[in-house]
Design brief:
Strand 23 and strand 24 form a beta hairpin. The longest helix has 39 residues. A seven-stranded antiparallel beta sheet has the order 3-2-1-7-6-5-4, with helices on both faces. A five-stranded antiparallel beta sheet has the order 9-8-12-11-10, with helices on both faces. Helix 13 crosses helix 16 and helix 18 packs across helix 19. It contains 21 helices and 27 strands. It folds into four domains: 201 residues, PAS domain (Beta-Lactamase); 126 residues, 2-Layer Sandwich (Beta-Lactamase); 168 residues, GAF domain (Beta-Lactamase), CATH 3.30.450.40; 226 residues, 4-Layer Sandwich (Phosphatase 2c, domain 1). The chain is flat. By secondary structure, the protein is an alpha+beta fold. InterPro entries: Bact_Sigma-Reg, GAF, GAF-like_dom_sf, PAC, PAS, PAS-assoc_C, PAS-like_dom_sf, PPM-type-like_dom_sf. Keywords: Coiled coil, Hydrolase. It comes from Geodermatophilus sabuli.
């Protein structure tokens, strides 16, 4: 966006002052931009000023040094000084504008910036005050609009080259926002200088013809706003990078010839921004010579005139169209009528195409949003009615062709007739019905005159009467084919004989049927996988046995999104010697493969526990570890094994032998409700190496509940396991004292679960 007048934009770090590229004092930037006004090198007068400077937001003056008068003022300068007749002497123009120094004193006739420029001296940049009240006409304007004193940045230099007959100088007065009053004098002037460089909306560039390929050595912030190229992307390159495939070669040749001849040039050509968009660029380039007449740089000013070019071209096109219309009035009217007809037809086609696309998009998003077959069929019927048909039937068959399920929808309801037709006709589907023919041939079946052609296919009068009440002028049956198998068919029916199914309707319905068939088959595969997963889960997670003296409960949640199984498991069994074994484990992974590994591992553990030469849990886990590594049953797993020995006498405690292989610690809930964390039991994971694991022996009184779990119960994003264990302990401690294993399992899983890991939990209360 253009910079607001008098409010410079911050460009620190993007566009350095001109000294950074070795082009002289900072004020020469503004002075150099005036050179591109198009005044011919060596003279030329005000008539050579291009139109681009007439309405720019900076005031521009041309001074005749010989006469000491202002001979030209652009629109901004006229607004500043009022309607002062030209030519006028320099001091007179300054008084009319109300120019003073920063202290409010009138400008000295010999040392003021305008006088210095009139004497042929360049002014690299000087701050002055614009005080409208110092001239009667400007003062009245100031009173009208409430303006106060403003700060102007004055820059000027001679325009005439060596040997020029005219002695002209150019002055630019740029309004800038006053800096902070707390700055010292030098800082105040430097702030004004910096703001003057960036305040103007005009796009300026400077190139160095003394370097190879005449590269850019400076661009102002407006260049970046116009082209999109940052300072660092532009400097060092020839500005031809703004050209593109549609840039006119003639315009480029004109610029190249002017540069070679060291002449100013103005041309309008098509350029391209960094993002590839084109714009019409009114470009003015002027050479800059040093005091000895040597070419030192080219200065360019660019203006986006895209809108002007567009308006001019539209005006030319309008004139041409008007001439054509006058010459060929009848032909034009005929062409217009045909164009309107074509436009209406195209619009209708576009609306139909848009409707088809919208239907397909809605169908895709609607059908894939459910994994329940009944819900999917209901959604499909809702998509068909009333957009494609007045009523519809969807029939699902099994591999033998028998009807498994139906769904239906009528635009007016009519549930009773649809249900009767489903029970008396669709469930039996005679061979001549369009639905049966469509399923058998896997092709669409269109019946144009349904009333007469379908009268004989009904097996009962009730079905025929229901069909007649529903109404059917034309019927379209479409197979639902997915993965080379026809699993269902859609029957679409229209009641209006004046609105039969067209080829376009058939194509659209076939597309919908294909998408629906694929979604339905995905549901079938998902349900099959769920059945397999459920069977696998039931086989891998045992039913807890009834053991005298014990009360037990378990809970399992899978983290797998593909199947409801995972690698966590639990087991409880009564051993041959009368002891009770309890195992909880966690195999790495959360899918069917992890579940399969878990099944192997659970079988190994059962075998090792049942016929263990040494029943010590530490020895049992060591044997399991050796078998896992030798047989490659699972990559890694954590286990905890508890061997519970019943009391030898009434009132005696249970004796627990516990060994842990990298598993979260067990929890003991004492009869009074206190929770004890068995953190002293630890050991290496199964599968990482042959390591001995210590067995800890505990005596627990009757009524104590032992809880074993996997880490999915205590994991929380961003927290460690200790925090999760603490939360679990808090929930269990808050449970009522009479709570049994089932209630404690429910309390344990009542907290927030991460959902990214399986959860297995078993609770055993010793009686």
């Amino acid at each position: 966006m253009p910079a607001e007048r008098g409010r410079p934009q911050d460009t620190s770090g993007v566009h350095p002052p001109l000294e950074a590229v070795g082009a002289g004092p900072a004020g020469i930037v503004t002075a150099a931009t005036a050179v591109v006004s198009g005044l011919e090198h060596g003279g030329g007068g005000t008539a050579a000023l291009p139109g681009v400077l007439a309405d720019v937001p900076v005031a521009v003056l041309v001074i005749d040094r010989g006469a000491g008068t202002v001979t030209y003022a652009n629109t901004a300068a006229v607004e500043m000084a009022g309607n002062v007749g030209l030519p006028v002497d320099i001091d007179g123009w300054g008084a009319a504008a109300g120019l003073t120094d920063l202290g409010g004193r009138p400008l000295a006739a010999s040392s003021g910036p305008l006088s210095l420029v009139a004497q042929g001296q360049p002014v690299a940049g000087e701050a002055v005050m614009l005080t409208p009240g110092r001239s009667s006409e400007a003062g009245r304007a100031a009173e009208d609009d409430g303006r106060s004193d403003r700060v102007l940045w004055v820059t000027g230099f001679p325009l005439s080259g060596p040997g020029s007959a005219q002695q002209l100088s150019l002055v630019v007065l740029l309004e800038v926002e006053a800096p902070d009053d707390e700055l010292d004098a030098e800082g105040y002037l430097q702030a004004l200088r910096d703001r003057a460089v960036i305040a103007t909306d005009m796009t300026f560039t400077i190139t160095d013809p003394r370097q190879p390929d005449d590269p850019l050595i400076w661009v102002n912030p407006s260049f970046t706003r116009l082209t999109g190229y940052e300072y660092a992307e532009a400097v060092g390159r020839n500005c031809r990078f703004l050209q593109g495939p549609a840039t006119a070669p003639e315009a480029v040749d004109t610029i190249r010839a002017a540069l070679a001849g060291e002449r100013p040039v103005s041309v309008t050509l098509l350029n391209y921004r960094k993002d590839g968009t084109a714009f019409w660029n009114q470009l003015s380039i002027s050479p800059v010579f040093d005091g000895e007449g040597r070419l030192v740089s080219f200065v360019g000013v660019q203006t986006d005139v895209t809108e002007r070019v567009r308006v001019e071209r539209e005006r030319e096109a309008a004139f041409a169209a008007e001439r054509t219309a006058r010459e060929e009035a009848e032909l034009a009217r005929a062409t217009a009528e045909q164009s309107r007809a074509d436009a209406e037809h195209a619009r209708a086609e576009a609306e139909r195409a848009q409707g088809r696309l919208a239907l397909m998009a809605e169908a895709t998003s609607t059908l894939i949003a459910t994994l329940d077959l009944t819900d999917l069929l209901e959604r499909l019927a809702g998509l068909c009615v009333p957009l494609l048909a007045d009523w519809a039937f969807i029939t699902v068959v099994d591999d033998t062709g028998a009807v498994q399920q139906t769904a239906f929808r009528h635009r007016d309801g009519r549930e009773a007739d649809l249900r009767l037709l489903s029970a008396r006709h669709v469930q039996q589907l005679p061979e001549g019905s369009p639905t049966r023919r469509s399923i058998a041939t896997s092709r669409a079946v269109l019946v144009a005159d349904a009333g007469e052609q379908l009268a004989g296919i009904f097996a009962s009068d009730a079905a025929r009467d229901a069909f007649a009440r529903l109404g059917a002028a034309s019927v379209l049956a479409l197979p639902m084919v997915a993965r080379r198998r026809t699993r269902a068919a859609i029957l679409l029916t229209r009641r209006d004989a004046d609105r039969p199914f067209t080829r376009e309707d058939v194509d659209l319905a076939e597309d919908l049927a294909r998408r629906a068939a694929l979604a339905m088959d995905n549901v079938r595969l998902y349900q099959q996988e769920q059945t397999v997963a459920d069977t696998l889960q039931r086989s891998l997670l045992p039913e807890l046995p009834d053991i005298a003296g014990l009360e037990s409960a378990a809970h399992y949640v899978s983290a797998s999104t593909a199947a409801d199984v995972g690698g966590d498991f639990y087991d409880l069994l009564e051993l041959p010697d009368g002891a009770v074994g309890m195992v909880v484990g966690d195999v790495v992974g959360h899918d069917v493969a992890a579940a399969a590994a878990m099944g192997h591992l659970r079988g190994l553990i059962r075998a090792c526990v049942w016929e263990a030469p040494d029943p010590d849990p530490g020895a049992v886990l060591a044997r399991v570890d050796r078998l896992v590594q030798g047989l490659r049953v699972a990559s890694m797993a954590t286990l905890v094994y508890v061997r519970a020995v019943p009391p030898t006498a009434a009132g005696a405690p249970w004796r627990l032998h516990v060994a842990n292989a990298g598993h979260p610690p067990l929890l003991l809930r004492e009869p009074g409700g206190a929770i004890r964390v068995l953190s002293e039991v630890s050991g290496m994971l199964v599968g990482v190496g042959d390591a001995a694991r210590e067995t800890v022996v505990l005596d627990v009184p009757s009524g104590t509940t032992l809880l074993a779990y996997t880490d999915g119960l205590i994991e929380r994003p961003g927290t460690d396991l200790d925090a999760g264990i603490s939360e679990l302990v808090g929930r269990l401690a808050a449970a009522p004292v009479p709570a049994g294993p089932r209630e404690l399992c429910d309390v344990a899983v009542a907290g927030p679960l991460d959902g990214r890991d399986d959860v297995a939990l078993i609770a055993v209360r010793f009686g």
